[in-house]
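[recover] target loaded
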């Protein structure tokens, strides 16, 4: 039996994780789940939202799947999700965006892959709060070095982008393209304004692209233009590679194109560790209501099974989810025509039950 670390998370995480776990178990994947708590609940008990035991469990098992974890805005603990990616060097965030039959969308088909750099950019956590002595000192140093004026009541967030991390993410993307039959990689940036950081990112992409010339196409887009083009012509694109912040934002935009956050899966990949999680957050206002869509986390488990070299179990789970989505019967309100007011919508648990039942009937066939 293969051990996998399962972090249920907080907010709606535990109910989604429960549905995901039952679906994976129904495929017969034979996973032994090592359940580890992280997030708000543990913070109260242990004084940290990410106890070392959680990291050690992932380091040992090398594979984890997690529910979302809340990050309080402005104050409090730093994002557990960002810390986890950093601690375990999960440098690549993989977010496939595929439109399933039965889901309402402005488009007939969409099949995009987003690759987000996970370790640096404005998410590196180097921040200085307004008015602190450290912030004043940083402002003074920057003014001395740049000869530019900064408002004295500013806060400062630092955006490091390195050649090594940028090349690593492009290399990951091109290798993914080759191994998954993808044709084109598009680098997304704002190098016209941020010439130092985004300029470096683009140059790293251009250099790595040369190693794959003739095998995978390469082009680039400025991030604002990219947003407009994705909304109008998403099928002109195949794979997008972005620095951390743009990657975060465009992941949600693309989730919107394929039916919303309820169906957008993801994975954080390192050199020998992978942590699978949905694109969405903990949706705290819905916690405990049995309302949210478990599909995104279940499709993250499909990615996990593929990563574990269990393609048949992955396909079985994907097919069961595809059929339930196509029928649009046993699905949560976000996938129903009348949304929240649709009386035929089912809960998280019931949608999980329907997928489990479908897996069992597919196995019997
Ligand atoms: P969110 O993704 O939690 O929710 C935004 C809205 O999207 C919800 O109100 C809901 O309408 C919809 N939605 C989200 N998940 C859904 C699902 N499974 N089914 C149906 N609809 C769904 O975003 P938020 O409200 O900005 O963030 C809440 C918290 O989650 C914040 O603390 C944020 O930092 C955290 N967060 C965590 C992760 C993570 O764990 N990796 C990712 C993003 C945000």
């Amino acid at each position: 039996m293969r051990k996998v670390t399962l972090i249920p998370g907080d907010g709606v995480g535990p109910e989604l994780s429960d549905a995901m776990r039952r679906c994976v178990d129904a495929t017969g994947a034979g996973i032994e789940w090592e359940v580890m708590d992280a997030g708000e609940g543990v913070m109260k008990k242990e004084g940290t939202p990410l106890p070392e035991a959680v990291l050690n469990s992932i380091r040992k098992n090398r594979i984890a799947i997690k529910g979302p974890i809340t990050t309080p805005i402005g104050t409090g603990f730093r994002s557990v999700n960002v810390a986890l990616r950093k601690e375990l060097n999960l440098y690549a965030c993989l977010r496939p965006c595929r439109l399933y039959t039965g889901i309402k969308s402005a488009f007939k088909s969409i099949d995009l892959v987003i690759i987000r750099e996970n370790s640096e950019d404005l998410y590196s956590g180097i921040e200085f709060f307004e008015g602190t002595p450290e912030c004043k000192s940083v402002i003074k140093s920057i003014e001395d070095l740049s000869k530019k004026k900064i408002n004295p009541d500013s806060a400062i967030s630092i955006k490091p982008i390195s050649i090594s991390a940028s090349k690593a993410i492009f290399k990951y993307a091109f290798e993914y393209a080759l191994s998954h039959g993808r044709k084109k990689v598009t680098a997304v940036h704002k190098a016209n304004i941020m010439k130092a950081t985004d300029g470096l990112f683009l140059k790293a992409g251009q250099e790595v692209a040369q190693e794959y010339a003739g095998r995978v196409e390469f082009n680039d887009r400025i991030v604002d233009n990219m947003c407009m083009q994705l909304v109008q012509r998403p099928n002109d694109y195949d794979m997008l590679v972005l620095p951390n912040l743009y990657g975060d934002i465009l992941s949600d935009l693309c989730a919107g194109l394929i039916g919303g956050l309820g169906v957008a899966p993801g994975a954080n990949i390192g050199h020998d560790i992978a942590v699978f999680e949905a694109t969405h957050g903990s949706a705290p206002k819905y916690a405990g209501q049995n309302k949210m869509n478990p599909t995104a986390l279940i499709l993250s488990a499909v990615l996990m099974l593929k990563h574990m070299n269990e393609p048949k179990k992955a396909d079985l789970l994907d097919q069961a989810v595809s059929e339930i989505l196509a029928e649009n019967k046993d699905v949560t309100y976000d996938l129903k025509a009348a949304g929240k007011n649709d009386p035929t919508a089912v809960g998280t648990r019931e949608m999980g039950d329907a997928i489990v039942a479908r897996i069992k009937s597919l196995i019997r066939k």
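[recover] notes: The pocket of nicotinamide-adenine-dinucleotide is lined by residues 68-71, 81, 260-262, 277, 280-284, 292-293, 296, 334 (CB under 6 Å).
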